[in-house]
C-alpha cells in the first residue's frame, strides 16, 4: 500500500501549496498541455445492435429478466468488457452491477475497482475506488470514485492523473474533479495541485489539457525569465487553436522595470482554388517604456516590433508574397532580443513581390525598402556604423531559357528594370539585358561548353543636390566569351576496408571579357564577390550589375570524390586556382588596376568518412605572399544518441580568428551536459557561451543553465534558465533553455523527443 500513497487524498488542507507559488493567480483558467507521442485513438463507433454476452462458472436467476454471475463473471458488449468476481446483470435495462476485483475495458481504456454499476447500452455508471489507464497517452491514476457519463466521458472524483508509467510516479496532479472526455480529447480539472516527488509545486483552481496531445486553446505555462539586460520578466502565454490550419498565441508579459508588453504570433496555412498559401506574423508592443529615453526630445516611448511573411499561389503560374521586418527604434534589439541572431540584425527588409511563370520564362516584380537600426556605440566608434542599402521601388526581373534547341543549343535571357532610391545618395533607374547562347558537348566522361553573352545596360540618373551632379544617361555594352570543360575518371578503391569508387575530375574554365570604362557608373547594389569555389567558375568577379569585370583568365580545378556502394559521397577533395593573362582594370571605386598573374589557391576537403565522423574544411592561400588568407575547419562527432561534439575554427586575415566548441554529452545516469564557447582569439574575449545540464527521467525532463552573448560592441546579455518539463502536461521554469540549446549546438537532440507543441 505504501507505493500507492500518492493516489490517496491529502490528509491536510492544501491551501498552503497555493501560497508557495506566485503563479497561482495567472493559472486560474484552463491551461494547455504539450504534445504527447503515441498512437492516435481511432474514432469510437458503438454498435448499438450488439448483444451482451455473459459467462461465469455459475449462473443463476431468470435469463429474460435478471441473472447472477459468480466466480469469474464476464460480460462483453461490442467494445466494452467487464470482468469481476460476481456480477448481477439485468437484461431489460441492459445494466450490470459487479463487485470484487472489478475490471473493465472500454475502447482500450482500462479500469479496476471494488464495485461497478454500468448501463452497457449507454455507457453510464460509476466505479468505486478505481484505478485507470488510458490507451491514447498511457495516462494513469486512482480516485475515490469514477462516474461514467457516456462511452467517451468519465468524471474522476478526488483522484490523480499522471503520464508516468510506474506505480509510484515522480509527478502527478491531484484534483477534486477531473473530467476525461476522450470524444472531445480534453481533460478538465477543478481545484488542482501538481506534485513533483510528492512535493506540491503548483496549485490552480482550474486546469485543462489535451489527452492525445492535439492542439487546443488555453493558457500555456507561465514563463518567468530575464530580458537581454538581465531584468526580470514574466510571460503568461495564451494559445488559440482557431482551426486545424490556423492558430494564434498571445504573449502578455510583465517587465517590472519597463511596463506591460503584449506579443502575438499568428500562423496559418491553407489552400484556395488557386493553390497553397501560408504565413506567420509576430508582433510586440510595449506602451510607455519607463526606462527608454527617446533619441529626440518629446519622442515616443512606445516600443514595438513586427515580423511577418506570407506566400500564396493565385494560380498554377502566378504567386505573390511579402516579408516585413520593422522596429520602433535603434535600441530595440539591444533591449528585447533573446538570441544572438536577433540582437545583431540591423538591416530590416520590407518586401512585396509577385512571380508569374510561363512554359520557359519567369517574370518577377517586387518593391523593397529597408529600415536600418544603428548600433548605439556607432556614435563613438564609426566602424560600427550600419550603411543603408538602396531601396528598389520597384524591381522587375525577367528570365527566359530553353535547352537543346536548334540542334543542341542552349539560350537564355536575363533582364531587369530597377528604380533605386536612397534618402542621401545618388538615385536612378537601371535597365539591364543579358542574352547568352551556349552549345554543350557532353560525353560519357567529358564535357565542353562554349558560351557567348553580352551585358547591355542603361542608367537614367537623377540630379543630386548634395554632390551638385546633373541628371545624365549612361550606357554600356560588354561582351563575354567563355569555355567550360572537364573530364571525369573513375576507379574502384579500398578505403577503410570498404569498396568505394574514386573519381578524378579536372576542370578548366576560360573567360574573356574586354575592358570597358565604368568609373562613372554608380554602385547601387554591387560589391566584390567572395572568393570561393563557386565564384571562381563565374564570368564576373562582382556581385550585382553595376560592374562587369574585364577578364582574360583561366580557372584550373581538380576535384576527387569517394563514393560508397550506394553512390553517396563519403569524401570530396578539391583544389582550384585562377590565372590572369591581363591586368584587372575595372574596380569598384578605384582606377588603379590589380596586377596579378594568379589568384590565391583554394583547397577544400569535406565528407563523412564514417557514420560517426563528419568534417568540412576550406583554405585560401596566397602564393605571392606565402601566407594563409582565410581558413575554416569544422569537425562533428556523433557516436550515438544524445552524443555530439562540434569543433570549429574560422580565420580571416586582418578581420577575425574564432574558435568554436559545442557539445551535448551524457555525464552519468540520465544526466547530460550541454555547452558552447565561441572565443575570439584576436580580441581575446568570449563572443558567445552556453552551459547547461539536463536530466531525463521516464516522464519528465529537467534543464538548467546560462547563456551569454554580445548585444552591442560593449555590452552583453547573460540570461539564466531552468525548466521542469512534465511529459504530457506542461513545463515550468524560467527562460527558454530548449530553444537556446537547439540554436547553439549543431546536432543537439531533445531528450524527450516527440513532446512539445
UniProtKB/TrEMBL annotation:
Cellular compartments annotated: Cell outer membrane
Keyword Membrane included in the entry's annotation: yes
Phylogenetic classification of the source organism: Bacteria, Pseudomonadati, Pseudomonadota, Betaproteobacteria, Burkholderiales
Record keywords, A-Z: Cell outer membrane, Membrane, Signal
Keyword Membrane: yes
Name of this protein: LPS-assembly protein LptD
Pfam family, any one: LptD
HAMAP family xrefs: LPS_assembly_LptD (MF_01411)
Residue ranges annotated for the LptD C-terminal domain, each copy included: 301-671
Family to which this protein belongs: Belongs to the LptD family.
The protein's role, per its UniProt record: Together with LptE, is involved in the assembly of lipopolysaccharide (LPS) at the surface of the outer membrane.
TM stretches of this protein: none
Superkingdom classification of source: Bacteria
Subunit structure: Component of the lipopolysaccharide transport and assembly complex. Interacts with LptE and LptA.
Main location as per UniProt: membrane
InterPro entries reported in the protein's UniProt record: LipoPS_assembly_LptD, LptD, LptD_C
Amino acid at each position: 500500500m505504501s507505493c500507492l500513497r500518492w493516489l490517496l487524498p491529502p490528509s491536510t488542507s492544501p491551501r498552503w501549496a497555493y501560497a508557495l507559488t506566485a503563479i497561482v493567480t495567472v493559472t486560474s483558467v484552463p491551461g494547455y498541455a504539450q504534445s504527447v507521442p503515441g498512437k492516435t485513438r481511432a474514432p469510437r463507433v458503438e454498435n448499438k445492435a450488439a448483444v451482451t454476452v455473459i459467462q461465469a462458472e455459475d449462473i443463476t436467476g431468470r435469463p429474460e429478466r435478471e441473472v447472477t454471475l459468480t466466480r469469474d463473471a464476464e460480460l462483453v458488449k461490442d467494445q466494452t468488457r467487464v470482468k469481476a468476481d460476481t456480477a448481477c446483470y439485468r437484461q431489460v435495462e441492459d445494466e450490470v452491477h459487479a463487485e470484487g476485483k472489478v475490471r473493465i475495458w472500454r475502447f482500450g481504456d482500462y479500469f479496476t475497482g471494488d464495485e461497478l454499476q454500468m448501463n452497457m447500452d449507454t455507457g453510464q455508471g460509476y466505479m468505486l475506488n478505481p484505478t485507470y489507464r488510458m490507451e491514447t497517452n498511457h495516462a494513469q491514476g486512482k480516485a475515490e470514485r469514477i462516474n461514467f457519463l457516456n462511452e467517451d466521458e468519465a468524471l474522476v472524483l478526488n483522484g490523480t492523473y499522471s503520464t508516468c508509467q510506474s506505480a509510484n510516479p515522480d509527478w502527478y496532479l491531484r484534483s477534486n474533479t477531473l473530467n476525461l472526455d476522450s470524444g472531445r480529447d480534453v481533460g478538465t480539472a477543478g481545484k488542482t495541485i501538481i506534485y513533483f516527488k510528492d512535493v506540491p509545486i503548483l496549485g490552480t483552481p482550474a486546469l485543462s489539457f489535451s489527452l492525445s496531445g492535439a492542439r487546443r486553446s488555453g493558457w500555456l505555462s507561465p514563463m518567468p525569465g530575464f530580458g537581454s539586460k538581465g531584468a526580470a520578466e514574466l510571460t503568461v502565454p495564451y494559445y488559440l487553436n482557431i482551426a486545424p490550419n490556423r492558430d494564434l498565441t498571445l504573449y502578455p508579459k510583465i517587465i517590472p522595470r519597463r511596463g506591460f508588453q503584449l506579443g502575438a504570433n499568428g500562423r496559418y496555412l491553407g489552400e484556395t482554388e488557386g493553390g497553397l498559401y501560408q504565413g506567420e506574423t509576430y508582433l510586440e508592443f510595449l506602451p510607455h517604456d519607463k526606462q527608454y529615453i527617446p533619441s529626440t526630445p518629446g519622442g515616443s516611448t512606445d516600443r514595438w516590433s513586427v515580423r511577418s511573411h506570407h506566400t500564396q499561389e493565385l494560380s498554377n503560374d502566378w504567386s505573390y508574397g511579402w516579408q516585413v521586418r520593422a522596429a520602433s527604434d535603434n535600441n530595440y534589439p539591444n533591449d528585447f532580443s533573446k538570441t544572438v541572431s536577433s540582437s545583431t540584425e540591423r538591416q530590416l527588409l520590407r518586401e512585396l513581390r509577385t512571380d508569374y511563370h510561363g512554359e520557359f520564362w519567369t517574370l518577377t516584380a517586387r518593391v523593397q525598402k529597408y529600415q536600418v537600426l544603428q548600433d548605439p556605440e556607432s556614435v563613438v566608434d564609426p566602424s560600427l556604423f550600419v550603411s543603408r542599402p538602396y531601396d528598389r521601388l520597384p524591381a522587375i526581373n525577367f528570365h527566359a531559357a530553353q535547352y537543346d534547341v536548334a540542334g543542341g543549343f542552349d539560350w537564355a535571357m536575363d533582364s531587369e528594370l530597377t528604380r533605386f532610391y536612397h534618402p542621401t545618395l545618388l538615385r536612378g533607374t537601371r535597365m539591364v539585358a543579358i542574352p547568352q547562347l551556349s552549345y554543350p558537348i557532353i560525353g560519357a566522361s567529358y564535357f565542353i561548353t562554349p558560351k557567348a553573352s553580352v551585358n547591355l545596360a542603361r542608367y537614367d540618373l537623377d540630379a543630386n543636390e548634395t554632390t551638385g551632379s546633373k541628371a545624365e544617361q549612361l550606357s554600356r555594352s560588354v561582351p563575354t566569351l567563355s569555355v567550360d570543360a572537364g573530364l571525369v575518371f573513375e576507379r574502384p578503391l579500398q578505403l577503410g576496408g570498404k569498396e568505394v569508387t574514386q573519381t578524378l575530375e579536372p576542370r578548366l574554365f576560360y573567360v574573356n571579357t574586354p575592358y570597358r570604362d565604368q568609373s562613372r557608373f554608380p554602385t547601387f547594389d554591387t560589391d566584390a564577390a567572395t572568393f570561393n569555389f563557386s565564384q571562381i567558375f563565374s564570368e564576373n568577379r562582382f556581385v550585382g550589375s553595376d560592374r562587369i569585370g574585364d577578364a582574360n583568365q583561366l580557372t584550373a580545378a581538380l576535384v576527387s570524390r569517394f563514393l560508397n556502394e550506394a553512390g553517396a559521397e563519403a569524401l570530396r577533395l578539391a583544389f582550384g586556382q585562377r590565372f590572369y593573362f591581363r591586368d584587372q582594370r575595372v574596380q569598384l571605386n578605384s582606377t588603379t588596376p590589380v596586377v596579378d598573374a594568379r589568384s590565391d589557391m583554394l583547397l577544400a576537403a569535406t565528407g563523412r568518412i564514417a557514420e560517426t565522423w563528419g568534417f568540412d574544411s576550406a583554405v585560401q592561400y596566397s602564393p605571392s605572399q606565402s601566407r594563409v588568407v582565410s581558413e575554416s575547419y569544422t569537425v562533428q562527432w556523433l557516436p550515438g544518441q544524445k552524443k555530439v561534439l562540434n569543433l570549429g575554427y574560422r580565420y580571416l586575415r586582418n578581420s577575425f580568428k574564432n574558435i568554436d566548441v559545442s557539445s551535448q554529452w551524457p555525464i552519468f545516469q540520465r544526466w547530460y551536459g550541454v555547452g558552447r564557447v565561441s572565443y575570439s582569439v584576436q580580441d581575446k574575449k568570449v563572443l558567445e557561451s552556453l552551459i547547461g545540464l539536463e536530466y531525463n527521467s521516464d516522464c519528465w525532463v529537467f534543464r538548467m543553465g546560462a547563456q551569454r552573448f554580445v548585444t552591442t560592441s560593449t555590452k552583453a546579455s547573460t540570461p539564466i534558465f531552468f525548466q521542469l518539463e512534465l511529459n504530457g502536461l506542461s513545463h515550468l521554469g524560467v527562460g527558454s533553455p530548449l530553444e537556446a540549446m537547439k540554436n547553439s549546438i549543431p546536432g543537439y537532440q531533445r531528450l524527450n523527443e516527440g513532446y512539445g507543441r
